[in-house]
Amino acid sequence: MKDTYRHKGMRNQLAELLMEKGITDTKVLNAIREVPRHLFMDSSFEGHAYQDKAFPIAADQTISQPYTVAFQTELLQLEPNHTVLEIGTGSGYQTAVLLKCKAKVYTIERQLELFKKTNLFFKKMGYRPKKFVFGDGYKGLPEDAPFDRIIVTAGAPEVPKALMSQLKVGGRLVIPVGFEDQIMTLLERTSEKEFKKTEYGSFRFVPLLEDKN
Ligand code: SAH
Fold first, then answer.
1. Is residue 29 part of a domain?
2. How many A from CA of 86 to the centre of ligand 1?
3. 143 Cβ contact list (under 8 Å, min separation 6)
4. CA distance 3 to 33
5. Is residue 188 situated within a structural domain?
6. How far apart are the C-alpha atoms of 14 and 21, rounded to whole Å?
7. Are 56 and 42 within 8 A, CB to CB?
């Protein structure tokens, strides 16, 4: 599998579509233009990679819709060298978008099959997260905390307390909260004890599950 001008052209069109849908952050749009999403997907779906849709990956999981990836990344308001904890690596596409935005990424996946597959893929592609951990994202990564930003890419019944405690004061945590559908939720840590919550639209994610598998 390789990247071609045709793929690049389709990515430019996808970025145009995301702008029409309201994404404005230039570095996010540039990351969408650069990251070869078709290489993160099973070859049977590769032809659809630049549609704005989620698709199945291994272990009954999905690669998030590009709009969702762009929306969550924009909400993070990333600055270069921010440390970002990502829960739910999956295909690694969101991870790659964060890396293109110059973040230092710590990412956790609970499905062993996906962890192994994506780990090999990152090496092959030269994507270098600071850490890629097989584990339970509910617990976060206490040894590397606190983080400037935290992003959860699976639907959580509630915001895990461990993740709130691992966010820097002034940091932003973006997480879809709910069961069937989820409300995209932004928590800004305004002081040691206070968080400001803002809710955005409704999205649909696979569930955030406890323990690794
Ligand atoms: N950002 C990914 C989304 C994958 S779907 C992509 O675009 O490819 C969500 C992922 O979260 C799945 O891979 C699932 O296995 C993982 N996940 C669910 N609960 C988790 C947990 N507690 N800790 C870490 N990963 C989890």
1. no
2. 9
3. none
4. 12
5. yes
6. 11
7. yes
Residue 22 inside a domain? The answer is no
Task: State in Å: Cα 194 to ligand 1 middle.
Answer: 27
Task: Locate 12 and state its tokens.
Answer: 């430019």
* In-domain check, residue 119: yes
- Pocket lining for ligand 1, CB < 6 angstroms: 61-64, 87-88, 90-91, 93-94, 108-111, 114, 136-138, 153-154, 206, 208-209
Looking at the 3D structure of the chain, how many domains does it have?
1
Q: Which CATH number fits the domain that encloses residue 192?
A: 3.40.50.150
Give strand pairing partners of 167: 147
156: which strand partners? 177
| Annotated catalytic residue 191 | no
Contacts of 35 (CB under 8 A, 6+ apart): 11, 93, 96, 97, 100
Residue 66 banded pLDDT, cuts 50, 70, 90 = very high
pLDDT single digits (tens) 183-208: 999 999 999 999 999 999 999 999 99
Spacing, Cα 89 to ligand 1 middle (Å) = 5
Locate all alpha helices (DSSP H) within 106-199, ordered by sequence.
Answer: 112-125, 161-165
Stated pTM of the model: 0.98
Torsion angle, alpha carbons of 173, 177, 183, 186, to 10:
-10
User: Which residue type, as a one-letter code, is found at position 105?
Assistant: V
